[in-house]
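Chapter summary example.
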Amino acid sequence: MTTLGIIGAGHIGTALAQAALDAGHDVVISNSRGPETLTDLVAALEQRPGRRGEVRADTSAGAAAAADLAVVTIPLTAVPDVPVEPLAGKVVIDTNNYYPQRDGQIAELDDESTTTAELLQAHLPTSRVVKAFNHIGAADIPTAGTPAGTPHRRALAVAGDDEAAKAAVVAFIDAIGFDTVDLGPLAEGWRIQRDTPGYGVPLDAAGLRAATDSAKRYRDM
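The structure predicted for these 221 residues follows.
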């Protein structure tokens, strides 16, 4: 059993909490407004049919400290607020996407000299960041998973610079019902960003591999 520490209690954070609890993992969830604002969400998660793990709310630092596996799923503008020290040495999943109309213009993302996950990695130099869960709708995370070996099981992409960190994320993804496609290093996470062929599309591993292989940079579209 793993404790999933979630920083960000929006749609993706909530969906990951649901899926993790169903798979028997414990969850500590947080937001920017404080754990007292998550009372209703925690109560709803506790009442989820089939829940096998335990859930509680905490501060972002508390969720980070409790995490065996952490998730950062917050607006890009809030990345500087992610606690650094409690996440030292830990595997951190980055779920973010860059939408300029929502996030404002970020020069290094506009010129594609970096990616959202690399920005988080730069903020968390002692953590091991893995890109995942940015190309699946929140509603599908707790509902679209199937057992390992299911024909045409849906696949999710991962990217990261640390092989052991990726393996931990792959194991979690498998536990909640999905196959994986390894894109390689963190810099390759652009292959599943918004407007790419695999973004938001339910595909099995072969289909997702083909989609990510055919992805083009924004400047080449």
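To summarize the output: Strands lie at 3-7, 26-30, 55-57, 69-72, 91-94, 128-131, 155-160, 179-182.
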